[in-house]
Structures are given as C-alpha cells and as structure tokens.
Amino acid sequence: MLAGSHARALSGDRHAVEQAEVAFFGRYRLMAIDGTVFNTADTFANAAAFGRSSNQYGPGAYPQVRCVLLAECGSHGVVGLEIDRYEVSEVHGAHRLLEQIGPEMLVLVDAGITGGEGFSSTCVSEGPMPWELWKLGSGNT
Predict the structure, then answer these.
(1) Whole-angstrom Cα distance, residue 11 to residue 59?
(2) pLDDT tens-digit map of 4-20
(3) 131 Cβ partners below 8 Å, 6+ apart?
(4) C-alpha distances out from residue 108 to 2, 42, 72, 89, 112, Å
(5) Domain extents in the chain
(6) Measuring CA to CA, how many Å separate 112 from each of 33, 63, 69, 116, 117?
(7) Which of 10, 3, 2, 13 shows the shortest CA–CA distance to 71?
(8) Containing H/E element for 15?
C-alpha cells in the first residue's frame, strides 16, 4: 500500500509530488515519533481519566492527556497514535508504536524518547541506527 502523499504524487498533483519527494530518503519512507500534551475540558471525568500536572503551587488548571504519534514527515499524516495519562512517560507510548514501524521506514525520534531503556536495542534489529545514517546517503541504500 502506498503512503498517502506518494499515491497522490502518482496522480500528478504537483503539491503532492513535492510532498512525496520530502517524504522519502532514498528508498526509505521518512517517519517521526514525538510526544505532546493536550489540555482537556476541566471535568471530574477527564481529571480521573487523564490526570493533570502540578507544581509547588498546586494542581494544573486543566486535565492533560499525553499523546505519542508516529507520523509521515512529508504529509504530516498520523499513522500511529498512543494516548495515555499525563504522568505516563512518552517513552512508553513510543515503545508501543515500535510494532508499527516497517523495514521500509527511516524513523526520526526525539532525543527524550531514545533515552528510554531498550529503545535503541529494539530499533537496531529493525533498521539503521542514527550513526549508520551517513551510509544511506552514500548510495548504499
């Protein structure tokens, strides 16, 4: 199955052609994993389900939900999503997204995520590690 931007490029859409060009590095589909936090409505149900931040002055103003996304770099299309409570580290969500990464993907990962125990060792069997990236650009794809 073709990536969304790649499929549109085949149809002749000029903007899609430009997106498809940046969505790939050689034969590899460029993907990214990163996390973010969203505020939710300030309800008891959301606070119970997602939790909220706090500091020395007390609880945060809104319950917050942590999301970790696997997205295509060219189209910014989200192909994988993990949603969890605020206090759950994005490293855990990233680990759950690993099963969605295929050998045809080159994945950019936030430094805060790669610091998790075992993340690098899990990725090494699936594809090139960052220190091997230079090999990909040298025509050895």
Answers:
(1) 51
(2) 555 555 555 666 556 55
(3) none
(4) 20, 34, 10, 18, 12
(5) 26-129
(6) 11, 23, 14, 8, 11
(7) 3
(8) helix 14-22
